[in-house]
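W.,

You were right to be curious about this one. When I first looked at the sequence I had no strong expectations either way, so I just let the prediction run and decided to look at it fresh. Below is the sequence, 424 residues in total, followed by the output.
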Amino acid sequence: MSSSSEIHVIDPASADSAHAQIAPVPRVSLQAFCETSDVSSIIQEAIADRRMQKAHVKLHMGGAVAAVEAYRESPTPNVIVIETTLDRAALLDHLDALSEFCDSGTKVVVIGRMNDIALYRDLMARGVSEYLIAPFGVVDFVRAVSELYSAAGAPPLGRVISFFGAKGGVGASTIAHNVAWSISRDFDIATIVADMDLGFGTAGLDFNQDPPQGIADAVYAPERLDANLIDRLLSKCTDKLSILAAPATLDRMYDFDESAFDMLLDVLRASVPVVVLDIPHTWSAWSRRLLVSSDEVVIVAAPDLANFRNSKNILDTLRAARPNDAKPKLALNLVGMPKRPEIPVNDFSDQLELPASAVVGFDPKLFGTAANNGQMIGEVEAGNKIVPVIDDLARAIMGRAEIKKQKRAILNPIFDKFMRKKAS
């Protein structure tokens, strides 16, 4: 057991588990020894959490007794988790026995039910790293493991916000770029836009930049990837906003493995407070992994049937893969296009069980002018009514605003027929 660690008592009753930002757990080995099915189930759920995806976890039953026996002949992992229902004296005896076999640097997390200051002090003296008081939630456990590897006083890791279009051509990139610009301006914090559409990305055009290097140079040189390389590849748009542009050329095939962007994301998280990922409308192992691993996901959709179907499929996938995260945000774009039948905003969001965080009206002149000039809409026409909609979405993403309820509209008959068919 590490003698330099300090005990950290987790009290889930006072912790805001639902929306707290938690750093991803690094590539560590963890073995848990449980005594009850309740704690075993919680840890089993935690293993599937996106923030634990790099950790190698094994779950055993038997508590402290089993842990001592397991390491008599075997090396200890990076983290040992021990659940105990023993009394104080018996628990300390087993920890003393375990310490004889613990490798240097192994961290020990004890799960108990006694809220006893004398026990806390005894555990601290023995180098226990964390003490969790059961019952606790999945997020409490993930947070406890994460904080084992968070340096005291270190700045928090950056938030990764992914924008994903429910259908091609719905303007997800445009919304992503304008929201990133709004965040950097209104919150006065450093923000990076990473254009993940390497073949056809538009971040360079939208911000009137033509960088000679960009995201491809980072992805194809993982052995050189660090904060210094990223800094050289960034194209500065404002004092607080930079882009990692896509090459937008077709001289090579952009086929990537599932984990191709993992290292890039780790470096970006450690570099700036906010990272906005502009993910193209494609479904692959790497795009799914980026969405699942993001701190916040924004689905951009137009109010029609295909967008509704795709949005529902995306939501169902993310809800299953991210059970311990807040729901994605929904941004409806191109609303009010003349002569186009639309699903009313409220019906669209009600059937998804997801309120629209932003409803962006159809304004081809405004967005076309901004695109042609390489500007954001707030720069083209600061007084336009769409500007505060984008600003409100930025604040909602950053946890600073409430979602406004849209007025009720008449149900689209085609949409109504579709929903009755789905229900049957």
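Here's what jumped out at me. The chain has two domains: 9-147, 159-423. And, maybe more interesting for your project: The first strand starts at residue 9 and ends at 10.

Coffee later to discuss?

I.
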